[in-house]
Amino acid sequence: MAPRDGPRGRGTARTTEVRSRASSFAVAFAFLLSLIARARSAEEAVVDDASSFEGPADPEAEALSKAWGPEETFVVLPRLASLHGETPWIEQISWSPRAQVYHNFLTPEECDHLIAIARPKMSVASVVDKKTGASKPSDVRTSTGHFLRRAEDPVVKRIEERIAAFAMVPEDHGEGVQILRYEKDQKYDPHFDYFQDDENVKHGGQRVATVLMYLSNVERGGETVFPHGERLAKEYEAVFVDENREASGAAGGDDETRKKRFPSACAAGKLHVAPKKGSALLFWSVDPTGHDDPKSLHGGCAVERGEKWTATKWLRHGPYGAEREQREKARIRRARELESRDDAAAGATSV
Ligand SMILES: O=C(O)CCC(=O)C(=O)O
Fold it and tell me: CATH number of the domain that 233 lies in?
């Protein structure tokens, strides 16, 4: 006989099973809720922390703020804060080539300092021979220049640290800063910063990016121009208006507007950056896959009025220069020591 309570028994068992499943769901759900609540409170705690975070204690920054006045606090990159009260801001001007302008990158005092240390040592600037890689004077580049040593003094060192943070390329990938001076009619014809010879890439690899810092304002001309660059914003499609029309005031607007709207013939209609004391232009000579970017072709338009001072920092693919060589020598020395120790050990065993 089939037990009467059989199905009922099964029913009871199922009910119990359902109940216990429901209660485990409830426990899991409660656990989930508690996890969410905990995550929320952690998130709030983080937000609270971030809002009260004022950057790491930095004796150098404190000394600087005493010397230069109050420093803005940047939570993410405190060392990039303006030292002179002007708000630093970054403007992307093109994806092709990848280029950005960092406004108020240098203080006026830093610009003047760089000019002052280079001025007595300027000589005719050279270009790199495509075939041999050697430096040679050329009509392509008619400015004068001087290379600073890396970390030549504390101001240069501080600027180099700032460049590394802005470009996100380590300091030891940078060549020494080159200071350039362009007088009236001096220019630098369009060229690539990446090397096209085999010699120059042997130490530190290819030049991947350039940071061009403007140390002076220029009354007219002297723009950095990318003849094949693709502009992001309409304002870079500045229209050329001839000197007479501008001089007669037909263009209208104040001096600043006129200068913005009426670049020299060399820059008009092309992606360009007008020199502004303290600004820095970062552009990449390679695309994101690491290949040479032909859109990075660029030049310095002739100065038409005034004088132009710049500081250029070329950034290499790998560590470059003295420190790299010292590290490499130390590595070779260590390898040789290990080798001779192994040889001595092998000799001792064989005796
Ligand atoms: O002076 C400029 O605007 C351009 C300089 C330049 O092309 C360079 O230093 O590679």
Answer: 2.60.120.620
- Classify the phi-psi angles of 180: left when phi > 0, otherwise alpha if psi is within -120 to 50, otherwise beta: beta
Residue 311 near residue 279 (C-beta atoms within 8 A): no
Among 146, 193, 212, say which to mutate for ligand 1: greatest number of ligand atoms within 8 Å of CB. Answer: 212
Q: How far is CA 164 from CA 168, 291, 315, in A?
A: 5, 21, 9
Q: Does 160 score more than 90 pLDDT?
A: yes
Pocket test for ligand 1, best of 298, 301, 304 (most atoms within 8 A of CB): 298
The domain of 184 spans 88-320
Query: CB of 283 closer than 6 A to ligand 1?
Result: no
For the CA of 191, the closest atom of ligand 1 is 7
The least confident of 189-193, 242-246, 251-255 is 242-246
Summarised one tens digit per residue, pLDDT across range 258-284 is 444 468 999 988 999 999 999 999 999
> Could you give the number of structural domains in the chain?
2
User: Do 153 and 48 share a structural domain?
Assistant: no
Ligand 1 atom 5: residue of nearest CA: 300
